[in-house]
Amino acid sequence: MIIPWLSIALLSPFVGGGLLLLVPARARGALRAVALGSAIPPLVVSLVLLARYDTVAGGFQFVESFSVVPSLGIAYRLAVDGLSLSLVLLTAVIYLTAITTTWYLAEREKEFFLFLALLVTGVLGVFVSLDLFLFFLFYELAVLPMYVLIVVWGSSMEVPARGPFGWTYRALRVGGKEYGAMKLTLYLLAGSAFILVGLFLLWVEGGRTLGQPTFDLVALRDVAFPHEIARPAFLLFYVGFGILAGIWPFHTWSPDGHASAPAAGSMVHAGVLMKLGAYGVLRLGFELLPAAAAEFAWIVGTVAVINIVYGAVAAGWQSDIKYLIAYSSVSHMGLVMLGMATLTAPGLSGSVFQMVAHGIMTGLFFTLVNLVYHKARVRDMKEMGGFAQRQPGMGTFFVVAGLSSLGLPGLAGFVAEFLVFLGAWSSAHPWWLFPAVFGALVTAIYVMRAVRRIYFGPAIQRFGEIKDLHGMEWVTPIVLGGLLLLLGVYPRLLLDSIQGGVAELLARYGG
Amino acid sequence: MTLERILILSIVLFAIGLFGVLARRHLIAILLSLELMFNAANLAILGIAWHRGCLAGALIVLFGIAITVAEVAIGLSLFLLAERVRGVVHADELSDLRG
Amino acid sequence: MTAALALLLGAPAASAAILGLVLPVRRSGRKAAWLSIAAVSSSFVAALWLLRQFIASPEPRSWEFVWAPFGDGAAIRFGVLLDGLSVPMLVLVSGVALAVQIYSVSYMAAERPTALGRYYAYHGLFTAAMLGLVAAHNTLQSYFFWELVGLGSYLLIGFWHQKPEAVRAATKAFWTTRLGDVGFAFGLIFLWSGSGTFVFEELFDSANAGRLSGSMLSLGVAGLFLGAMGKSAQFPLHVWLPDAMEGPTPVSALIHAATMVAAGVYLMARITPLLTLVPAVAGIVLSLGVLTALLAATLALVARDVKRILAYSTVSQLGYMMAAVGASATAAGFFHLTTHAFFKALLFLAAGSLIHAVHTNDIFEMGGLWKRMPLTGACFLVGSLALAGVPPLSGFWSKDEILISLWEGGHRFAFAALVLAAGLTAFYVFRAFFVIFFGGNAGSMKAHEAPSTMTLPMAALSLAAIGGGALGEPIHAWIGASISGPRSGAVEHGADWVPVLATSVGLLGIAVAWLGYSRRAYRPEVWRARLAPVVRLLERGYYVDDAFLAGYRVLYLDLGRMVGWFDRYVIDGCVNLATWVTWQSAGRLRAIQTGRPQDALYAIAVGFLLLICLAWWG
User: Do A457 and C145 touch (CB under 8 A)?
Assistant: First the structure.
């Protein structure tokens, strides 16, 4: 019997969300149990798939397919390959840890877990869909729940109204969680409008070439799209998905959105949803439209190095710790995009690996930052200090996340970063290496500065007896920190499957 | 008596009705003008049916007149409601459609 | 062989992991310490065994495995290379680490058990990383452990993390070495792009075969040297080392005297075959080494903190080693590295013993300690004599070899500068010695000799510092067997006058210090006042720190402020402006939505009319 692994993983959060509706809101223990229960199958499945994925054969495996609307070529097609397998694992891990992070939430847990489950269903769906219609459907599903998560469970902050357009800041109430949520949603929906047009172009042209309409990714791969279709389609995908991946200058939703989101929301959003954008560019842009991608790779790469340097430098100015991490995400997503744009084996491997490494790292960061906020009620780093004396556990994990972010060997970030560097130097535009490395240097500065400001130095009396991690709070940091270490020491865990996917992708570029 | 003349009459009636609907303020006047427009349409249908010599047109018009009775009843009751609840008899004093 | 290797590399890592992850063990304090010491001892024994094996059959051996494949069959391989350079270095590192860990048991006795466990966990991490770096058979693996060594150093310097200065120093050390590491990263990428490999042996082969050449080779070696400058505190990246003395003194002995700072020299020695192919880069290495040796020696002249004096002295001695490597006298440089590890670790441990007893770092607050702490005094004297290059102590032999190599290599200017630096060295170290042990502050001191766990490692290191000169011949032999450089073999003793000159200069320095600080034959304070501008320049460290600070302010803080402001108020301002414009125009357009049914009907009528017109004439 063939076990529908991917359907199990995909439907588990969805079904879990449905079950949550049946549990009364007062039964908190049951709500948490159901949420946690819905997070375990995806994790188990992704581990099983990782173990069973045939790296020698490569390609799409564990395919499930049945037709839904034959006349339009829409089908329920699921599969994973070397590129998406790691991301499925990442999503499963982040979902599980997002739930354990919110374990002590005491406000509308039922709705929270429900929206979280919907969000994760959407993300998982995108990663396992082989059908572009399904892909877009899940994409839209992933974009929307974040609005509710931010508006209901988020937090606001003050942003002084300055600059040439200062009056608009007051009018729009910049800094409020409603502002952050609306900005994020509008930005991402704008992106999906681009994507929809791009998909439509491919569908029409693919249908014309193949003789029957289809949304099948594998079938569309064989279509040699003419230039006048491929070019606009690539740019549409790049901008549309790129907004979600935080490409400059469409990244400003990310700091505001992540700063106002609750912990689990930021974790899923920065951890996997931004990856979804990068994955979209990779899958639809670079895989389906190789000719256009090769032509526009210089734009992608150049914008990516702007992201790297700009995000890192801008992070240096932030004193709100959530903004700091959000800007570091902008910088690190630049590495992901740069790795792609190099169109080399190390670069692409590094890009996919960086998606995983950054997802885990940023998940860890947001968890800790929210715990700090929860315990000490402070987000401004200037007011912190000496927390390591009261919170040695949290301090340790913060340092681990920070070190991974600055690319310290032995942690996952190094493998990714270094592969991208190698790729950049062997690409058609070797100069990309220099700004990328400069970004890594600046990252070292702001990360260590944050560590010093928050955790080191004399203890501040005002905070008194702030508590370290306790109970379920330990789970998330241990899982994520342990994974960073594991992947940093033994990267083959993922690289073995990734490199197969990369080789296949590169074969489409004639080498 | 040609079809052309009947249609011209119908158009004139329709235009007068439309003008009334748009320009009069009192709700009763608007309702009256609406009736005028409706009957202009009826006249046009009847004229075409007569011209072609088919009975179906007359049937439609009869059917329509029956429905108009119901429509006028609803219209008048809405008018009464507006007058009683809001104390309004002029159309430009009602702007609930703005939402 | 592999078992010994696994023990050597694995034991410290395992102890670090256990201490780091198993909370009860870490919190047990002294038990944790002894666990860590047991691990390092087994490492040391394994290293000694490997050395014996190597002496028995001196050919390089290597093992490797695929660490990170990245498509097309290309992969990053990790491996171990045991040859005449790495095996002695492994013995040295594990030996010094062992001595320091034993010493720390007493020195850190006042710490809380948890903190002590943490201390030993960091030590384990550092030692494991350092051994991994030494054993690495490729540039990438070197870089991997190189960075981990930097992390260990960061954690140990900042061990007292409630002290702002310690954290500041730790962060500074991390940033400065990271700056050099950027060069390292560039260097190894350049070398890789020229040859397609990271493995040292393969790099040498492709360089010798001419495949790896030209700018990629020069830039690659220069990049690696930049990394070495950071770790080995070469001018102007030396600024972190004096500040790093904020860490516990045993840490200074281990990391900032014997092991980590030697990593840069070790790396340059490792790539000697490449260095000899690019004379221009080798020239830079030589000149920067000489410059560092001289400048750091002058800085040590005015320092008051005993640990800072030793730190500047370390920088200066590292300059000697770099100069030797740059002049292709790899074996001499490595010999000096070894002897320096002995006597400088000894000096630091002795200084730690002093600080432990009198609770101050300022030499002018100490004084007359010779009678109260005879053993420490004797150890400090041995270390100082070795540092000053007085025969027959170890420092004499190694320093002489460097000087002779420079003379014979025709580097006259470098030779003269280093001889001058040798005189300064003898002066500043004996200035400290006389002030501490024979200075005037005797009455107020209530000092007592350190416990045996502190004196035993010192005694062992004293023996090594005295007799280390005997290692010269074997080191030449081992390195000659492993590294094919033009002049890595034993130095021809053609210039017999060099040792005489160097020794006399050293003795002269000692004499001047003795006259000034013990006999009071002249008054150093007066000279200090007379040379006030120069002293000020030296006390500010040639303003290198200020230059870095200014760079940090402009390139990081100001740029960050600009970009951050630009992002929030210009880019985001445009976004908000667009929103605002949409909002406002919507507000205007709302006006036509009166909600009056007649207006809507009017619009419908007009629209219908327009449609008819379109149908008619369109």
Answer: no
